Amino acid sequence: MAERLFARAPRKIAFPPNVDAETKLLILGSLPGDASIRQGEYYAHRGNGFWQLIGDVLGEHLRGQPYAMRLKRLRARGVGLWDVIESAERPGSLDSSIRGAELRDLGLFVERLPALRAIGFNGKTASLHGRRQLGERPGLALIDLPSSSGAYASLSREAKRHAWSVLRDHLE
Predict the structure, then answer these.
(1) Which of 70, 89, 126, 163 has its CA 20 to 30 A from that of 49?
(2) Distance between CA atoms of residues 170 and 124, nearest Å
(3) 10 Å Cβ neighbour count for 27?
């Protein structure tokens, strides 16, 4: 019984970035949740509104597309995806349960994206870790977004859609 109380949560590992040299807007999450890890896809949980929100920003219906096509459409429109945490212990999928986070080197990463204009932080955890690493960067807009997670229910889908719409300005 005592062993169970002190058992460590499984260490979860994030996905590689989905970016290229034409990435203008980078969306940074915290760490993929269990459904995403199981499926090997960013934002795979059906309750997560990411694909609807970013689709609204781009004026495209992405949610119903096969995953590979969604990633291809994002890259074609200059949008990249990644996470601020490389790995962490976390039972379940809530950011509040993350322990022992190993962070990515965001500073070096963004220097390798010559077209990058803006970073959107998908939720508070991503913003906290991302802003701490990046600081102020002239010519690079850092945008805090309400989490697309269905677990973040204090904002309506419409309010989230409105908040995410500011990303359009960084794609033109």
Answers:
(1) 89
(2) 21
(3) 28
The overall pTM is greater than 0.85: yes
Angle subtended at Cα 108 by Cα 103 and Cα 114, rounded to the nearest 5 degrees: 130
Tokens of 59: 């004026």
Angle at 52 between CA 49 and CA 58, to 5 degrees: 135
DSSP-derived secondary structure for 114-135: TT--EEEEESHHHHHHHHHHH-
- Which amino acid does the sequence have at 41? E
- pLDDT greater at residue 20 or residue 151: 20
Task: Tell me the Cα Rg of the chain.
Answer: 16
pLDDT in tens, 120-129: 999 999 999 9
Q: Which DSSP symbol is given to 18? A: B
Four-CA torsion 115, 69, 129, 33, nearest 10 degrees: -170
Among candidates 169, 171, 125, which has minimal Cα distance to 145? 125
Tokens of 113: 């994206």
Q: Are strands 79-83 and 85-89 parallel, antiparallel or unpaired?
A: unpaired
- Report residue 64 as tokens: 């119903």
What is the arithmetic mean of pLDDT over 99-124? 95
